[in-house]
């Protein structure tokens, strides 16, 4: 066991070094000063799970926060506030049992990238749902009444023109799957 010969009658915050170990007087007793390299104020770690702040120490202050589990980095939050997975197409938000309740997104903000690396956007334009800039679905109802049928006219879904045929053909229209039995 090491023996230390601390000074007699020290003053508050006096320091003393012996055998390469630094001590300071807190007003009541001598406390050991831990080397600053062993204190990580930018890192939280429990086992192999780590949350760490990375700072590039440049004038712009660019840095990030990373999340690591089982020794593998999973997510990064950039200095611009973007949440980016550490690897491509590996992580989910929610699952079948524990779902994310709501996503609030800006216009034209859902992007899908296929195997061809082409970005395809789903968004809102003038209150209409769009896919890659084109309107996804339009339904036009002109004074709808009970029993009216919608028909796709090649551009939009609209009221089907009524026929005057009162025969059997008017009751069973397989073309539009309207079967009023």
SSE topology sketch:
Elements (H helix, E strand, L loop, with lengths): L14 E4 L2 E5 L4 E3 L10 E4 L2 E7 L7 E7 L2 E7 L4 E3 L24 E4 L5 E7 L2 E4 L2 E2 L3 E2 L9 E3 L4 E3 L8 H4 L10
Parallel strand pairs: 13-15
Antiparallel strand pairs: 1-2, 2-3, 4-5, 5-6, 6-7, 7-8, 9-10, 10-11, 11-12, 14-15
Provide a brief overview of the structure.
This protein is an all-beta fold. Among the domains are: 1-39, no CATH class; 43-85, no CATH class; 139-176, no CATH class. The chain has one helix at 168-171, and strands at residues 15-18, 21-25, 30-32, 43-46, 49-55, 63-69, 72-78, 83-85, 110-113, 119-125, 128-131, 134-135, 139-140, 150-152, 157-159.
Count of runs of 4 or more consecutive helical residues: 1
Overall geometry: rod-shaped
Tell me the β content. 35-45%
Helix % is under 10%
What is the strand tally?
15
The computed structural class is mainly beta
Straight-line distance between termini: 98 Å
- Low-confidence sequence ranges: 170-181
Order of helices and strands: EEEEEEEEEEEEEEEH
Report the sheet with the most strands, covering strand number, pairing sense and barrel closure. 5 strands, antiparallel
Mean pLDDT: 77
Strand order in the sheet with the most strands: 4-5-6-7-8
Task: Calculate Rg over CA atoms.
Answer: 35 Å
